[in-house]
Amino acid sequence: METHWADAIADQILKLGHKHLVASGITPSGDIHIGNMREVVTADAVYRALKDKNADVKLIYIADTFDPLRKVYPFLPDSYSEHIGKPLFKIPCPCGEHENYAEHFLQPFLQSLEALEINAEILRADEIYNEGKYTQSIINTLEQQHTIAQILEKTSHRKLPDDWSPFNPLCPRCDSITRTRVTGFNSKLQTVDMTCACGYTGTIPVTGGGKLTWRVDWPARWSILGVTVEPFGKDHATSGGSYDTGRKIAKEIYHYTPPYPIVYEWIMLKGKGAMHSSKGLAISISEMLEVLPPEVLRYLIIRSKPEKHIEFDPGTTLLNLIDEYDRMDISSRAYQLSQTKKAWHSNIPFKHIVTAIQVAGDTSALLDILERSGYDTVDTRAVLTRAENARKWLDKYAPPYVKFTIQERLPQTTKSFSTKERQALLKLAEQLLEWNTPEEIHNGIYEIAKSVTLDPKTLFRAIYVSLLSTTSGPRLGYFLASLDKDFLIQRFDQAAQEQKE
Ligand SMILES: [Zn+2]
Ligand SMILES: [Zn+2]
Questions:
Q1: Which segments of the chain have a pLDDT < 70?
Q2: Which ligand lies nearest the alpha carbon of 197?
Q3: What is the DSSP letter of 181?
Q4: Has domain 1-155+214-341 been given CATH number 3.30.300.20?
Q5: 3-state class (DSSP) for residue 341
Q6: Residue 278 confidence (pLDDT)
Q7: How many angstroms separate the alpha carbon of residue 139 from the centre of ligand 2?
């Protein structure tokens, strides 16, 4: 059997040492979506693989709360234009219930992490800066900024402006970090001289007084926190990209071995491209957890190698994903690495639950239907959790062909049935009581079609028309098994009668 990618990566990492810090992170500037989730689940899979190999390993998640707001995103009120350029932790939360803008987007994500059982230590960039953990690195960086500028220009093939500084001071007057400029610094006093476009000029302490620019912040952080493994998107992995410049800066400036890189591909929204919350083109993790069990959401990421892009479609693909997960060999690594403690291995295909809840009026009817069609519902709470998932999925994402309504009366369209169709339906009404399982029903329908020399597909269609007034519907054997037999017999009997105007 092929080694799972997380184990293969863990083996490579263990060649470098026994003790590891796996880092991942995000800028919480908008809803944290399924696309962003790939990073943290990838990190967690490798973390779990390392733990299984008895490595001394820790997982951290860094929220880049000190990053500035870049623009007024479509989901923000226009009034947020006054906050452009301020760090996210200094901006008010859009709903008024969180401590700041960053927390507004971070909190639902942290709840999702809990559901996904990703036990990362959460760090916030503003706290790391304000606690002074960066201070010595910032001084070293300012002292060597010419060397750093050379590395950046040479490696990334871009010219830096003459007044470039690796440090973005935070203006004490207007809170901007994008309109400020460093004019000098004092290593001994650990202060920076700065000016701001708002008119402010002054000297501020390095600690909490601003942040390093991204390409320098990243390698500085590796050395400050001791990061040895980090997954990141392919945009950072290009030649001359931020990992390329980062590893050189790490080695030459901070004398630190860059982390083992795990480059991952995007999760694409089927037919729409890569997910971007800034373009409103994304599904948040909490939204997905309403329709998917956490272990299946983990499995979506864990089943694919990081370098392969994932095409995600909350409609049919998702339905198939759940069934694929439920059918998996529980000894397979992808299955094991997807597990959560509360995970429930269902023997009821999700597709059948989707059918059953559309047949059932309420919860007890649902359980009856599942039992009638041969499923074990002893673990009622687990079954009902899946049923709740299915209900939300039907409301929000199900393609139209999955939805159906059982017609209270015999549809008018049955009038056009042929004599053979009527014969077959009559036989069906007579024999239905003899069959119990979905398989028996399925096979019985084929036999009946054969006995009256009717194409089985035509009979299938006649059955759907009689019940749903549509020419197709859910898998027939299971569907009929889930319905009340007296009702079915009466309906097929009725449909078999020649109807006179
Ligand atoms: Zn809020
Ligand atoms: Zn200012």
A1: 277-281, 499-501
A2: 2
A3: E
A4: no
A5: coil
A6: 65
A7: 22
Residue 441, amino acid: I
| CATH fold of 156-212 | SH3 type barrels. (2.30.30)
Fold of 412-496: Arc Repressor Mutant, subunit A (1.10.10)
State in Å: Cα 80 to ligand 1 middle: 14
pLDDT at site 2: 85
On the question of a common fold for 156-212 and 412-496, the answer reads: no
Nearest to 413 by CA among 489, 486, 487, 464: 464
Cα separation, 409 vs 491, whole angstroms = 8
Task: Tell me how far the alpha carbon of residue 493 lies from the centroid of ligand 1, in angstroms.
Answer: 59
**Phi and psi (nearest 5°) for 233?**
-65, 160
Distance 295 CA to ligand 1 centre (A): 28
Tell me, in angstroms, the distance from the centre of ligand 2 to residue 178's CA: 9
pLDDT tens sequence across 427-461:
999 999 999 899 999 999 999 999 999 999 999 99
Compute the distance from residue 242 Cα to the ligand 2 centre, in Å.
28
- Strands, E assignment, 79-153: 121-124
Contact 267, 275 (CB under 8 A): yes
**Residue 94 CA to ligand 1 centre (angstroms):** 5
Q: How far is the CA of 108 from the centre of ligand 1 (A)?
A: 10
Look at residue 281 in the predicted model and tell me its pLDDT: 67
What residues does each domain of the chain span? 1-155+214-341, 156-212, 350-400, 412-496
Ligand 2 centre distance from Cα of residue 85 (Å) = 10
| Cα 176 to ligand 2 centroid, rounded to whole Å | 6
HSE of 107 in the Cβ direction (CA atoms, 13 Å)? Answer: 9
Q: How many angstroms separate the alpha carbon of residue 354 from the centre of ligand 2?
A: 56
Give the pLDDT score at 116.
96
Ligand nearest to the CA of 95: 1
